[in-house]
Specification:
The chain is mainly alpha-helical. It has one domain. Helix content is 87%, strand content 0%. The chain contains 3 helices and no strands.
């Protein structure tokens, strides 16, 4: 049992070493994930900045009506 745990920790140690080694496959995948997350965040902020309040107020009213309907009819 103790030997199995040591093997598991060695695998985890190797994966962490590969993750933080510049130029490794895991490091590039992690970098791509961060880049996609930053891009998605930028797009979300850009959309939020460009959607005027005149559009968001009616949408909020629609979702409020849906919520009331679901609450009254047991949704």
């Amino acid at each position: 049992m103790r030997h199995e745990a040591r093997g598991y920790f060695e695998v985890v140690r190797q994966q962490l070493r590969e993750l933080f080694t510049p130029g490794s496959a895991q490091n590039r995948r992690g970098q791509e994930l961060v880049e996609y997350a930053l891009l998605l965040g930028f797009v979300a902020v850009a959309i939020a900045a460009t959607v005027p309040y005149q559009v968001t107020a009616p949408l909020s009213a629609i979702f409020s009506k849906i919520q009331v309907h679901l609450n009254t009819h047991g949704g």
